[in-house]
Amino acid sequence: MSDGGGFARLPSAAPLRDRDVAEPMAILRERGQREVFCGLTGIVWLHRKIQDAFFLVVGSRTCAHLIQSAAGVMVFAEPRFATAIMEERDLAGLADANEELDRIVERLLARRPDIKLLFLVGSCPSEVIKLDLSRAAARLSARHSPGVRVLNYSGSGIETTFTQGEDACLASLVPEAPVSEEVAQDLLVVGALPDIVEDQFQRLFAKMGLERVSFFPPRRSGAIPAIGPNTRFLLAQPFLTDTARALEARGATRLSAQFPFGAEGAAHWFSAAAKAFGISQERFDEAIGPARARAERALAPLRAELQGKSIFFFPDSQLEPCLARFLSQELGMRPLEVGTPYLNQELLAPDLLALPKQTRLSEGQDVDRQLDRCRAQKPDLVVCGLGLANPLEREGMATKWSIELVFSPVHGFDCAADLANLFARPLRRRAGLKV
Amino acid sequence: MQLTVWTYEGPPHVGAMRIAAAMQGVHFVLHAPQGDTYADLLFTMIERRDVRPPVTYTTFQARDLGSDTAALFKTAVAEAYARFAPQCMIVGASCTAELIQDDPGGLAQALDLPIPVLPLDLPSYQKKENWGAAETFYQIVRALAKNPGRTKDASAPPLCNLLGPTALGFRHRDDLVEITRLLAELGVGVNVVAPFEATPDDIARLPDADFNVLMYPEIGDQAARWLEKTHGQPCIRTIPIGYAATRAFIAETAKLAGLDPTPLLTPNRSRLPWWSRSVDSNYLTGKRVFIFGDATHAIAVARVARDELGFEVVGLGCYNREFAREMRAAAASYGLEALITDDYLLVEDAIDRLQPELVLGTQMERHIAKRLGLPCAVISAPVHVQDFPARYAPVMGFEGANVLFDTLVHPLVMGLEEHLLAMFRDDFEFHDAAGPSHLHTAGSSAAKLASDRNRAGRSDSADTLYPDATHSDDVRLGEVRSDDARSGPSDSAHRPSAPPWSPEAQAELMKIPFFVRGKARRNTELFAAERGLPVIGVEALYDAKSHFSR
After folding, report:
1. Predicted model pTM
2. Do B6 and A68 touch (CB under 8 A)?
3. How far is B5 from chain A (nearest CA, A)?
C-alpha cells in the first residue's frame, strides 16, 4: 500500500522558500493504513461549544459505536448528538431514506425544543449511497423555519480525518453569517476553543485596545458574527483550511501567524493582530507583558525537564507541526518525526519555519512503516492515538495520548504550562514508578 | 432508520475483531475506511491489551472509490500476510465497504496464499456485534476443524473443549480459570479453549475432545451445534453462574464423563448459602430487582437473585434478540413479560416505572440507575474498563457465586444499618440532609462532597469491585432526589396530572427511607391523580400506602 509514497521536495515557490536553512524541508508522503479517527469525532467537542446545536449523524451502527467510544461518559447525559442508523430498507430506496430522515428529525425536534440549529452530518455510508444531505437540509430548514435552521456537512472518514470534521462544520456555518457592511475593522478568532480560553483571549485583546473581537463558532447559533471585507481573522486552530477559504470568499482577510501554543506562539499570534490593527509596540508589550512573563515563568521548570528529550508524533489532529514548534523552540525538545494527516503549508508556514531543519515531516500514514521508524529511532516520548499507546508502552516507549491535546484547554499564555505538562507527565510518571 | 445515542452492541465486524483478537496466529483484513480504526482502542484501552489487535484496515478514501478499491484490498492482504505471517486469515468488509461490493473473499482467494483465508459475510445493516462474533467463530471452526478427532486411549481421562471465552467478554478471563479448576478437580481435562488464546492448530484439534462445554452461548452456540452435528460431540449447556447452577453443571458434566461428582458437591464449597441464610441477610427478602443484560447473564443472575438471595425479580430482559426465545421463557417463570430491546430509552422507562430497589445491568443501566437514584451493579457486557479488575473476580463456579453475593448485596444498605436508619431517621444528626459527622460539614456541602466523591471515581471506597458499590451510601449522605428536578421525555409521561404536595405531606415523604421514597411518591401521585385530589396531604400518603400494600 505504498503507492504514492516516498520523499517529495517542496517546490521552490512554496511558502518555505524563505527558510534560513540551505535545504528545503523534506516531506515524507505516505499512503497506507491510517490509524486515525474520522471527522465525526469532532461532534464530541463541537456540541459543547455551540450550546443550542444538535448534531445528527446519518450513518451506520459503526458511526454510533465510534461516537460513543470517543465520547465516553458524555453519552450518558442527554447529549445533543445522535445517530440515525441506516438499515437494510433505507439502502433499498433513497426516497424512503429521505422520508425516514424527515420522520426522525420531526421526532427529535419535538422532543428537544431547545434546539435552534441542527446539523445533518454525513458519514461514509451516506456518502457512498449518495444520500443528498444538502437537499435534505434545505427541505427540513424550510419546514422547520424560523425556529430551527438545518445545515449539513460531511464528517465521513472517506473525506475527513478527525479535526477536519470541525473544519467542515465551520465551513458550513460561514454562509449563515450575516454580511457585514461595516467599514470599521473587526477581528474574528476562528476555531472552537474552550470558553475559558476565549475569555482569556478576549481580555488580552481588550487590553491591547481591540474591542471589536468576536469568536467563530459562537456559543449560541443566533449570535453568528457578521462577516465581510472589514473582517480580519486569526485562525486559532491549524486544521481550518476550508473554513479559511470560505471566509476569504466572503472578503475576509486572514492574518498569518504562528498558532497560539506556548508563550512565544501566543505572543506571535497576538502580535499579528496588533500589527494589523495598528497597535503600537509599546501598548502591545504592556498588554501581553504580564501574561507572557507568567507563561515563561511557568514554562521554565518544564524546560529543565524536557530539554533534549526526543519526540515522535503519529498523525492525528494536524496540531502536530505547531506542537512540535512549541516543544522544540520553547522547551528544547528534539522532534524526530512530525506526522500529520494533512499538511497545509500555507497556514502553517510560520510554525514550519521555526522547526529544527532535521525534523522529518510526514503527511498521510502507513502505520506499520511508521511504527518501524518509531521503533528504530527509540524516541523518549511518542505522541499517538489510543489504539497505539498501550502496545508502545509495552514495548518500552513513553507515550502521550494525542486526543487529550484536542480535548484540553491548551491555547494561549495561561495554558502554556498545562500544555507542556501534558508532555512532561508521562515521563515524570515513568521516572516515579517503582513497579 | 433508527435514532440512537448509544448502542449495546457494535457492528458485526467488531464481533469478528473480538474473535481475531482473542486468538493467536489469526489476522483479520477488514475493508473499511479510516474512521473504523477506532475499534482498536476498545481492545487496547478497555481491556488494556498490550498489543494491537491483529487487524489491517484498508482505509480507502473518497478518491479511491473512483479508481480501484479492489486493488487496494488485495495489496493490504498481501502486505499483511508478508508482515504478520499468520497461520490463518479472515477477510471481510465493514458497513461502508459492504456498499461498494468489492468481494473481499474472492479477492483474497485470488492471491492464492499458502494459508487458509476465510471470507466473512457480515451484513452490517441487519446484524450486530454478538452475531458477528458467533458467525466468525463458527466459520473458523467449520473451516479448520474438518477432520475427525483422534481415537483416545480408553484409560485416558475425559477431555472437553471450553467454547465461547473471547476478547472484551464480561469476566471471561476469570471464569475460564474457575471452570478449568472445577473440571480438573472433577477429573476432566481441557483439550482446547476457544477462541480465547487458541491457534488455528488448536481449532483443528477441537474434534479430539469427548464433549464441549458451552460457556457463552452468545459467542459459541453456532460452533457448538456444528461440532455436535459433525463430530458427534455432546455439549454441556448449563451455565455455571450461581451456587445451584454450578452444582447442576458439575452433576451434568460428571454424568456425561462417567465420573463421580460427590467430592465437588459437598456443602461449604461456596460461602453464598450461609451468607444468604445468616440473619443479617433477612433484610434482602423480597427486595425488588430489575435485571437487564445479555440473555445468558441476565437469565442466570435472575435465578441467583430469586433462589439464592431471596429477591423478587420485577423486571427481566436482554438486548440480544438472538436469544429472545430463551429470555421469554425465563421471564415467564417469574410471571413477567421479557423486555427485549436494544433501545436503552425503553429500558430506562421500564426501570422508572417499576422503581426497583436494585438494578442489575450493563454500564448503561448503571448510568440510568444513577440518574434515578437507585442502587445498581453491573452483571453483563458491553464491557467497561472497570469490568476488567486487576484481581480475580469470576462470576462462574463457586468463587463466582461468592463474587455474585457481594456484587448483588453491597449496593444495598446493610441489614442492621437499615434498621438503624429507620429508627433514627428523624434524629437531628441522622436525617437526610445531615452530612456524616466526621466530615464536619453542613448538610448541603456533605451532599456535594458525596457527589464529588461519586464523580471522582469512588477510588476512596474500600470496595470498588462494582462501580456503584458505594452508591447507596452516597444517597444516604444527603442526596435528596427530586423527581421533579429531573428533565427528560420519559418523566412527565407517567404522571401528567399529579396534584401538588402539601408541605406537611412533603415533610412526611422525606421521613420515608430514600430507597422506597421514589416508589412512595409515585404511588401516592398515581393514587391522588386517579381520585382527582386537588392536593396531596398526609392522609393521601397513607391512604395510598394502604391501597398499594393490598
Report:
1. 0.87
2. yes
3. 4
